[in-house]
Each structure stands twice: as C-alpha cells, then as structure tokens.
Amino acid sequence: MFGNKCDKTCACNMETTELCLPESGDCECKAGYAGAACNSPCLQPFWGKGCENRCDQCVFENGALCDPINGTCICPPGFIGENCESKCNDGYFGLGCMNECRCKNGATCDFIYGTCNCTAGFRGPSCNFPCWAQHGGNGCEDCDCKNGGGCDPIDKKCICTAGWTGDKCQLPCAPGHYGIDCKLQCRCENGATCDVHSGKCQCPSGFHGDFCESKCDGNLWGENCDKPCDCSGYGTCEQHTGSCLC
Known about the structure:
- This is EGF-like domain-containing protein.
- The protein is mainly beta and about 250 residues long.
- Helix content is about 0%, strand content about 25%.
- A two-stranded antiparallel sheet has the order 1-2.
C-alpha cells in the first residue's frame, strides 16, 4: 500500500519487487527485473536492479550469457574463464570443462560435446577400434582393392599382391616385370616367358637354365631340354622340335 493514508494498492509484482515506494507507489525492482511493475526480466546483456548495468566484459562471441542478478558471465559448454574467454584445455569438454574426454589413438575431442574425431585408421565412439579389413583412411572408407590386394588402414592405399599393379591393383604386370607391384624386372632370355608372380623363366623348346640362357646339348630337346633325341647316331637333333636332320 502507498499514499498519504496508505489507502492505495501498489501495482508491483511482489515476487520481483524489492520495494514499493510509500509516497509514490513506484516499484523498485529486484536485481534482474525492470518495468513499471517489475514484470520484465533483464534482456541480455543487462543486469541488476532495473536492468541498468551491462555485462560488456563477457565474450558473447563464445556464447557467454550475462547473469541478470549479479552480472557475472555464464559460460556455455566448452568455455571457461571469468569472461568465458578460454576454450577447454585439451582432453576436457562440456560445461565448466569438467568432463574428461575418452578419445584414443590420437583422436581429437570436441571441446563442446566430447565427440571424438578419429585419426586415419581408427573408428568407434572412442576411436578405439581399427578399421575393418579392406577399409582405411579417415572414416574407414572402402579401399576397393582388386585381385587380393590389401589395404593400408592409415592412408587407404592398396598393397598389391605379386603380379599386379595400379592404384587399385587392377592391372597385371607388363611384359618383362613381375613381383609385388610389378617392381622387379625379369631376366629371361631367348624368348622365354616370365612368371609374373615369382619371376621364374619358362624356357621355350631348345633352351634351358635359370634364365633360359643356354641351348640344349646335342642329343636333348624340348622345354628345359629334358627330352632325348632318337636320331640313331646318324642325324642331328633339331632342338626345338626333336626332329632328326639327316
């Protein structure tokens, strides 16, 4: 009540009003409220009685809020400091940076939500699992390696088996090359074919040796010179076909 005879009723919201002035009936608001009847909460970034003060010190770019009662800065998850000026230290996240990250294998932790950003080659909520077989890189994507090629889980590159090359191990070795990724050069001679897996020489008829470098001896013929000629001691042996030249 207010007035000379205290016969007038204050229009103040008593829950948010500190004092109804007895002479005028004006409302003196509690901290955090303003308006003729103290019905209006302070808008950001104002605070205090009648919302007359500003929280200019808070770093609003980081999502800070101003406490409408006492003017302190209320930090959002991921930020700390008197003015909410600092991100959480590495390994911590959330409100007040009180939560410890659980990320493994070099993963980074989101300072707001605590989600883990896995390094290449790992997966799972905590990045504690390696990529599945034939998967690799960031996000453990399918490597799509062909012909039995393996996949490097870190850089997602295909590791070709002997006899194959190409980004996806899709290409056979070119003539004259063999081995893993076709990096080795065949040493076969005299038209011999080279095994693309082992590099072993398959000699044509009439030649033998590790590299098919030697002709068959006089009475032998065929692949690797393992067949005897039967020229009755008179003719000479044609070492490619085994026929006798009289």
